[in-house]
Amino acid sequence: MNRRRLGQGALALGLSSLAAPALRAQGFDHTIRLVVPNAPGGTSDILARLIAPELTRALGQNVVVENRAGAGGNIGADAVAKSPPDGHTLLLMDVTTIATNPALFPRLPFDNRRDLAPVTMLIYAPYILGVANKLPVRDAAGLAAFAKSAPQPLNAGNSGVGTASHLTLIQLADFFGREMTHVPYRGGAPALTAVVSGEADLTIAGATQAQAYATNGQMRAVAVTGTHRLAPLPDVPTFREVGWPAVDAGTWQGVMAQGNTPRPLLDRLHKELAAALTQPAIAARLADLGAEPRTEGPEPFRRWLDQETQTYTQLIRANNVRLD
Fold first, then answer.
1. C-alpha distances in angstroms, 60 versus 7, 76, 225?
2. Crossing angle of the two packed helices 207-215 and 188-197, in degrees rounded to 10
């Protein structure tokens, strides 16, 4: 009888020791790195620093924002792709970059599909198309007419060669039937500054960055992407309303983990990230920035990424967009 009980106790202890690593694998037991592959101050960085404290509270571990800029986001993305698959190293970025880079870089140090696992989209911020105040343009129709009739092609500032803002402006130029001179800047903020100063004629940038410039009268907003007009700019129509292409272009911020991260960890992260965006202070800040929560989870994120990668690859190749 005693030997039977001893055997049962040993078996229970053995099962417990086997279960412990599995239980730990589904939890978080040390500092979590939230990698932003851009310089501080951009949309990804703003969002990361908004949610890091809430994620720290929810997961019981310190969440540290780490900026790793360079190579069009590839340096930061590669750091996550090569991290342990334990959910403790996360990538927060404008995931349109993930969709465009395979067609822009002849060789990437990681495979987007294999080495990075979607957790969830976080927010969508529509683009605002803004023109310099010096231009004799008051609205979308006026811009289209002026772009066609101007003696010289308009200078279109963008956030970098091959970025979504650059590609969206290419689509608009094709639609207007008149080429633009595409001028790359080191991000959306410098492109906006160029329009304010009159160095560039127009630009397109996420509402999180551009909205203040429009509402303060530093540039003139003529149209916005997305499904509806922005509350702070009620007189500015959507691309769809004026019949322009690229109606869903914009800033799509999402979170990804190492590609082999166990699904229970991805689900936990999705749950906590979605909950974080419902916190009143965070929700109010996102609304102020013109951003909309999008937290549907891994599968919708993966479908979106596959579709956008295909769309942007075709656009990049059709227009022979090159980084050099």
1. 37, 24, 38
2. 20
- Token code pair at residue 256: 């990804």
- What fold characterizes domain 126-242? D-Maltodextrin-Binding Protein; domain 2 (3.40.190)
Cβ atoms of 60 and 53 within 8 Å: the answer is no
Domain(s) labelled CATH 3.40.190.150 in the chain stretch across: 30-124+250-318
> Do 192 and 159 meet the contact criterion of CB atoms below 8 Å apart?
no
What's the one-letter identity of residue 242?
V
The model's pTM is 0.85
Which H or E run contains 10? helix 2-25
For domain 30-124+250-318, the CATH superfamily is Bordetella uptake gene, domain 1 (3.40.190.150)
Region 67-73 average pLDDT: 91
pLDDT over threshold 60, residue 171 = yes
CB 187 within 8 A of CB 196: no
Six token digits for residue 31: 């500092």
